[in-house]
Amino acid sequence: MPAPLRPRPAPAVELLPKIIMGVDPGTQIMGYALIEVRGQRVDVLCYDVINMKALGSNHAVKLKRIFDRMLELIDEYLPDELAIEAPFFGVNVQSMLKLGRAQGVAIAAALSRQIPYVEYAPTKVKQSVTGSGAATKEQVAHMLRQTLTLPPAAQASTFLDATDALAVALCHHYQKGNAAGASGGKSWGKFLAENPERLGASTATKANKTTRTASVKGKSIPK
């Protein structure tokens, strides 16, 4: 009698794919990026901006645009975690207030889908990607283009907010997600498990997503 087949071991947790959404908040231009991480492999799913310059001066309209677009991206890419840059404290109080609202709306969109979020200071993000907390936006973008193969994007090449958002997502990856969940919430996977009616619409997106990925080049990314 042939020996019974042994069950295959479950894949190591660190090799399971994780999708991280990075956001660089803004009231005129908001950068976003989504990466898929499997072990040390990083695939850039997309990176681009939400351009709100044509929406005029009505701040409420811009906030609604941020919320709606965030939900579209979340429903398309199904991120497990959100990494968002903390506002930079400047001298203009009104600008800080508006920026804080934009950040809050982006976070609210993630929490509405039960996705945990983590904030990172701008200096932390720059140091994680370039090794210097005083790096410029241009230096951050240059390092990302040197170490990643970036997919084409309509406006990403024009606005550095897109590469800033990608840097936020990578910063979270480098932290190994240790801070994820500190804000509460559940993963998107758990949400789907509790809401199976969402699974049908989401599965097709997951299956076709690999056609939009771009792999890390054959060299390590500096931490």
Beta-strand percent range: 15-25%
Largest sheet data: 6 strands, mixed
Number of strands: 6
| Strand order, sheet with most strands | 5-4-1-2-3-6
Net shape = globular
Q: Could you spell the SSE succession in H and E letters?
A: EEEHEHEHHHHHE
How many helices does DSSP assign?
7
Please provide a written account of the structure.
It is a single chain. Helices cover 40% and strands 17% of the residues. It has seven helices and six strands; from the N terminus they run E-E-E-H-E-H-E-H-H-H-H-H-E. A six-stranded mixed β-sheet has the order 5-4-1-2-3-6. The longest helix has 20 residues, at 93-112. The protein starts with 17 loop residues before the first strand and ends in an 8-residue tail after the last strand. The model is unreliable at 177-192 and 198-223 (pLDDT under 50).
Topology:
Blueprint: E1 18-24, E2 29-38, E3 41-51, H1 59-77, E4 81-85, H2 93-112, E5 117-120, H3 122-130, H4 137-147, H5 161-174, H6 188-194, H7 199-208, E6 214-215
Parallel strand pairs: 1-4, 4-5
Antiparallel strand pairs: 1-2, 2-3, 3-6
Helix pairs in contact: 1-2, 3-5, 4-5
How is this structure best summarized?
This protein is α/β, with parallel strands linked by helices and 223 residues long. The chain has helices at residues 59-77, 93-112, 122-130, 137-147, 161-174, 188-194, 199-208; strands at residues 18-24, 29-38, 41-51, 81-85, 117-120, 214-215. It is globular and about 55 Å long.
Features:
single chain, 223 residues, alpha/beta, 7 helices, disordered C terminus
